[in-house]
Amino acid sequence: MKKKTFFSSLVLTSIGLVILGTAVANGLQQRAANPKFSKLKTTAVKADKQQKKANKKAKRQLPPAAPVPAFAKKGIDWLVEAQHTSGGWGAGSHAKQQNLDPSKVKLDPATTAFSAMALLRAGHTPTSGTYRDALRKAATFLIETVERYEKPGPRITDITGTQPQAKLGPLVDTTMTTQFLARLLPLLSKKDALRERTDAALDKCLKKLQMSQQQNGSWVAGGWAPVLQSSLGCTALELAQAAGKNIDLKKLDRARKYQQGNFNNKTGKANAAAGAGVELYAFSGAQRASAGQARAARDLVREAKRRGELKADDQVNEENLRKIGVSSDKAKNLANANEAAEAQAKRLSDETLLRGFGNNGGEEFLSYLMTSESLIITGGDTWKQWNSKINSRLSKIQNPNGSWNGHHCISSPVFCTAAVLQCITTDRDAAILIQVADKAADRQDTKDAPKVSSKR
Q1: 15-19, 35-39, 82-86, 273-277, range with greatest mean pLDDT
Q2: Alpha carbon distance 393, 372 (integer Å)
Q3: Assigned fold of 65-441
């Protein structure tokens, strides 16, 4: 009796599995037969695979970084000497721009973060490199600054009137500290005493940064050239994303589109309204915001040609991107970014543009830095030409003691030296910059992000 019951159950189970399998197969056939579903699925999978292959290929092609130039090493030595025993640096007061003595200024988070990033880019970490102790002290200074500040709102300090705040914007301490913590976090092991504190401080800064963004994607809240503060905010979100943080992607889209909207692809000119009337500031911010998407467009088309899906002479444009499976909105944004990058590259020999305000200040050095990062991301010979030109330009105006200082607005030798050092060693951060570009290309653009300027 038991054997008969067991046999009957086995037969019924088998029949059930056959019926279930038939239903699943029929369902799959119906979905496959639906042209709309099949096309969408194939397109999405195809585009995703293409992008991943393009990203891997791009990373394999990264050239080795050049050694740190001797004149830059002198600048690094000076910067470390200028660090206070507490681990911080300061740019000084806007009201006392004539004070160029780094030992006689108030310390501020923005300048500390900016200086620490110069050491990171030169190859020093909290656990390795000649200046690991200086970097660890700087990290501790910034983490403690964030931990101690308990007031709500976008700020992380009550210090006001610093040169970076007055010229770039009052939230520059938050944007630059977010950048540094995002760069620092992946370098710390889970056993490092600073790891959890860095992670928590980054989360706190990121929350403040995201909640303070305006609807148009900017962080315009005062400052002489707030377009630069907004550009730094955009980069901070990118670096946080690259560090593994779940940022608000809509806010990152808005940040990029705000910067990109300041540049006219057809005329090659930038709108300097938020840049104190200085085209260079808006130009470099727009260039930095377009770089990741421009590289993504080029890599996708290059890979498609390699696979024979596009002809060898096919251009990087919206039509060809859509042809290889990129969604309409994304294809348009990538193509526009590539068009902008090409137009911007043509302006890099324009001395009227590069002179900025007319003489060098921290704003000019920061703009050069953003252009260097943009060209590392987009790659090609344009970077080599620019790097040779800017290294020659900056080495000629270095002070005998190894520092650089500004002659208007941000005159601080600490801030200016940190900017120059990052500019001339940008290729040493190629891996992280390309990672930022890959993140920009791996997702669909959000529908409710502001549209790119109609001037394009």
Answers
A1: 82-86
A2: 13
A3: Glycosyltransferase (1.50.10)
